[in-house]
Design a protein that fits this description.
Length: 674
């Protein structure tokens, strides 16, 4: 045993067991949310401290930049740089002026050409925009191109090009503003012809001026900061200058908030004007919002900054796009067909909306440092959710486009059917059928598109929709068994529509229900009684339907004349009245067969009943009958024909008066004086 303990291998094992256990390194846990927040706060404090420390160094930064610029210019003053920039701007403006003189006659023809259709107006707007782009191209070639064609020092080249590019950006913004607002035309007719966003001339001039001021300040401020970079300013000093120039943008935005013209609908009557926040409250909230956005920019929180900007700008841009597309493609005249222009407005509006949303997504992805291409190759929960959200946006945009196209087509066809005044019975019946069926088709298509879009969105987000579809089928069976009356109403309504039993605007009667068909739903029909009440009748209880407004109506009535009447004379008078009414423009379009006398209906106790007949359009027989009665009465009076009425005759010999007197005494009340 002792020899075993003295063995070197055993001694080594014993010594290892006596050693303290070696600590196993565990991976460090990631930072918590509070630690991340503290890091961000610390970084923000450091950033603000660096900016504050850079402010006192600005004079030294300017002196150093001025020295470098003077050295580059070989002793010239900075004023010479400004004169150089103005000179090339003047050169670009002169080239543009020459181009305007050459193209002046063509521009005049565009403005003075009479516009009679929507396509002509759009053609004129596009030509005007093309000429403005030509002006900008000539200006850029005459200023930037001429400057770059010469050999300049590198530092001077970068500074001057930055300001010339800023001038081109300002000109481009002015062109876009003139294209949308048309603020400077001589007359209101031209302004209305070229203006794409609906507003009055004063409002257009206001927004044009402020767009020019905002873009000009931004462009030349950007050029100034870029020139400071070229001249060797430190990043902190450039940031201080950028934020100082950003204060100018903030002031311009707040000034617009408080001085902007009221929209046109705010001057409408209060009953029709939409509800809006009080102007002072809205101005205060917008001003606070702009200050918050500027603060996010200064704090370096660029992700939240761009999110705040897009949250304000994107809905406004989408609204302006919709208004501009509808206004630009509006029918020029009352009689001009608007179906194709309505579809073009939908395509233009939805297309620009899709581009705006896609641009906003890409901008946010860049601001939040999200690589969309790399994300498609990874398969984590976050990447799946982001890919699903992007797919859902595309699906909703496509569904919205399909719905708007279908809705526009149906609404245009429905408006044409409602305005149809054709006297052709076949055309009128087809239009009435369309007025009945198109609203139902529109609702059904909307429901189908909504369900399909929701299922596709859920599928794109990773939700398994198979159980949902199966559950919907089971729920449908359960509803079918538990709501047999509802199913009966829906199916009955489908067959009523397939049978063309009635249409909107027709007068029907079913049992104790009667009235004019006002509208449909999937399970019931609304009937307006001729005295005002509205019946909502389920299709399942409607039963047999008597349609009183289909094709034509035969109206018959009787006239009582004495036995000594000349019937042939009465027949001729009634026939003449029917012919006169059929020739009267007030009644002719509603009379299918004129009024005529059919003959003797029967011999009564005190008169001969003669029957008259006429065929009219449905619902018009009452007016025509009343007018016919008045003319028959006048004609009979003029020709000595009397109308019969009940009479009592007493006949007898000499005893007749005594018998009559005795009868009177028999019915004399008791207690009467003798």
């Amino acid at each position: 045993m002792l020899q075993l303990l003295q063995d070197p291998a055993v001694q080594t094992w014993i010594n290892e067991q006596k050693r303290p256990p070696v600590a196993v390194e565990t991976p460090a846990a990631g930072p918590t949310a509070s630690e991340i927040m503290m890091q961000r706060i610390t970084g923000l404090r450091g950033r603000l401290a660096a900016l504050a420390a850079a402010v006192p160094r600005l004079p030294d930064e300017f002196r150093g930049a001025s020295g470098r610029l003077l050295e580059e210019l070989q002793g010239r003053r900075p004023l010479s740089v400004l004169i150089l920039i103005l000179g090339f701007l003047a050169l670009g403006a002169g080239a543009e002026r020459l181009f305007r003189l050459v193209t002046g006659p063509s521009r005049g023809r565009i403005v003075s050409r009479p516009v009679t259709t929507t396509s002509e107006r759009l053609h004129a707007v596009v030509l005007r925009f093309a000429f403005n782009l030509g002006d900008l191209a000539i200006f850029a070639a005459g200023s930037i191109g001429a400057f770059l064609a010469l050999d300049w020092p590198a530092l001077l080249r970068q500074v001057v090009v930055a300001f010339l590019v800023a001038a081109v950006i300002l000109r481009l913004a002015l062109i876009a503003s003139r294209f949308l607002l048309a603020p400077n035309h001589a007359g209101p007719a031209h302004a209305e012809q070229f203006r794409l966003i609906p507003m009055d001339a004063a409002t257009a001039r206001f927004w044009h001026r402020h767009v020019a001021l905002f873009v000009g300040w931004f462009a030349f401020g950007w050029a100034t900061v870029d020139a400071l970079r070229v001249l060797g300013f430190t990043p902190e000093a450039r940031a201080v200058m950028a934020y100082a120039l950003g204060l100018g943008l903030l002031v311009i935005a707040i000034e617009v908030v408080w001085t902007r013209p009221r929209p046109a609908f705010s001057r409408a009557p209060e009953a029709s004007a939409p509800r809006r926040l009080p102007r002072a409250l809205a101005g205060s909230l917008l001003s606070l919002y702009f200050v918050l956005v500027w603060g996010l920019w200064v704090a370096g929180l660029m992700g939240f900054f761009w999110l705040s900007v897009i949250a304000l700008v994107l809905p406004l841009a989408i609204s302006l796009t919709e208004k501009a597309s509808r206004h630009a493609l509006r029918p020029h005249a009352e009689g001009e067909a608007a179906a194709h222009t309505g579809l073009m407005a939908v395509y233009l509006d939805r297309g620009i909306r899709a581009l705006l949303i896609a641009g906003a997504v890409l901008l946010l992805a860049d601001a939040w440092h999200i690589d969309l291409v790399e994300m498609t190759s990874r398969d984590t929960l976050l990447t799946r959710l982001v890919r699903g959200a992007l797919s859902a946006i595309v699906i909703l945009l496509v569904a919205d486009l399909v719905w708007q196209v279908v809705k526009t087509l149906i609404d245009k066809r429905l408006a044409r059917a409602q305005s149809q005044t054709s006297t052709d019975s076949e055309i009128a019946s087809r239009e009435a059928r369309l007025r009945t069926l198109l609203p139902i088709f529109r609702n059904v298509i909307f429901a189908v598109l909504a369900v399909v879009a929701v299922l596709m969105v859920l599928s794109a987000l990773g939700v398994e929709i198979g159980p949902l579809i199966a559950g919907a089928g089971i729920a449908g069976v359960a509803v079918g068994f538990g709501a047999q009356t509802l199913v009966k109403d829906v199916i009955s309504g489908v067959f009523y529509l397939l049978d063309d039993a009635f249409r909107v605007g027709e007068y029907i009667q079913s049992g104790s229900y009667k009235g004019t068909v006002e509208s449909f739903s999937l399970r019931s029909v609304k009937l307006r009684h001729h005295r005002g009440p509205v019946y909502t009748v389920p299709f399942g209880v409607l039963g047999a339907v008597e349609n009183m407004s289909r094709d034509w109506v035969i109206d018959k009535f009787q006239i009582n004349v004495p036995y000594d009447t000349d019937l042939e004379k009465a027949r001729k008078l009634i026939k003449k009245i029917g012919q006169d009414m059929a020739a009267d423009p007030e009644y002719a379009h509603n009379i299918i067969e004129p009024l005529k006398m059919q003959g003797v209906e029967q011999f009564g106790d005190f008169a001969i009943q003669i029957r008259c007949k006429m065929t009219t359009r449905p619902g018009e027989q009452f007016v025509i009958r009343r007018k016919a009665f008045a003319r028959i009465k006048q004609a009979f009076d003029e020709n000595g024909i009397k109308f019969a009425f009940p009479t009592v005759q007493v006949a007898g010999g000499e005893t007749a008066p005594a018998v009559a007197q005795e009868g009177l005494q028999l019915v004399k009340p008791a207690g009467a004086a003798e």
